[in-house]
Each structure stands twice: as C-alpha cells, then as structure tokens.
Design brief:
176 residues; 0% strand
C-alpha cells in the first residue's frame, strides 16, 4: 500500500489545527508559550546530561551553567505564561526587525542583481511588521504567536495534502 493516505491525513490534521488556531489565537499563543517553556526545560536537561560525558573542566562548567539557565528560563515561562507571552512576542518582533534591516542592507549591496527588489520589499515588510507588532504591544502579544502557529499549520497542511495527492497520482500511474 502506498503511504499517500498518511501524508494526506497528517496534512488534513495540520490544516484543521491551523483553522482552530486561527479562530483561537490567544489559546494558540498560550500553547506556543508553554511548548517553548517545556522545550527550554528539556534542552537544559539534555545539556546537563551531556556535561557528564564532556571533557575539559572549563567547557563543562559553561555548558552546565547554560543548561541550568535553560531550565530556569523554561520553568519561568511555564510558571508565568502571560509574562512569557509578552517576552516571546518582543523577541519575535526584534527578530523581524533585525531580519528586515539585514535584508534591506543586503539588497542595497546587490543592486545590480535580479533579487534586489524582492529582497528590498521583503526587508521593508519585515520592518513594518515589527513596528506594527511593537506599536500594538501588548495587545499584539495576545495573538501574534498563535497567528504565526496557525499560518505554519495551514501552510504545512496544504503542502502535506498536496504531496499526498501527488503520491497517490504517482502510485496510480505506476500501477496502471
């Protein structure tokens, strides 16, 4: 049996989850914040476990401190979700701003190339989006991460369903 059904099914689930996230952006934002907290906790634990087998005292000390800091950050996010949402939104807005500035500078350095305009427009849009998020802060924090999650789930769902249908078509063509 061809596994196109699995691809399509997972895509359908992702797409449906994206719709749910889109209609409940605060709930999805809270989910992202909590998942981020758990990821920091597990990453910190993994880093501390890696310290045990590491070599070099100085490297092990720094890795251990980084592991402890990661666990502390994760526990803080888990224990204070609303503050975590604000902090993560500020980080995302800062990343958009820095990415936009970098793309604008890169486009200026390559004015004779074919990707000047797309890079410049992308950079400007990133800066505008960062400004929009920060000017609407903290209200934007209640929905931004959830909307980003929804868009990711929707686009992945569409891709996976399309890939599933393509695999089905290929299987039928090779069988017939």
């Amino acid at each position: 049996m061809n596994n196109w059904i699995i691809w399509f099914g997972v895509g359908l689930i992702a797409f449906a989850a994206g719709i749910v996230a889109l209609f409940n952006p605060f709930g999805a934002t809270l989910l992202v914040e909590q998942l981020t907290g758990w990821m920091f906790v597990f990453a910190g634990i993994a880093q501390l476990v890696a310290v045990i087998g590491g070599t070099g005292v100085r490297g092990r000390i720094w890795a251990g401190l980084a592991g402890i800091a990661s666990i502390f950050l994760g526990i803080t996010l888990l224990g204070h979700p609303l503050a975590g949402i604000l902090a993560l939104t500020a980080v995302v807005a800062t990343m958009f701003l820095l990415s936009g500035i970098a793309k604008i500078l890169f486009s200026k350095a390559s004015q004779d190339k074919q990707f000047f305009w797309p890079m410049l427009i992308s950079g400007i849009l990133s800066v505008v989006f960062a400004a929009w998020v920060m000017l609407d802060f903290p209200v934007s924090a209640t929905r931004l991460l959830g909307i980003i999650l929804a868009m990711e789930l929707l686009s992945n769902g569409i891709f996976l369903m399309t890939a599933g249908m393509a695999r089905r078509k290929a299987a039928r063509a090779s069988a017939g």
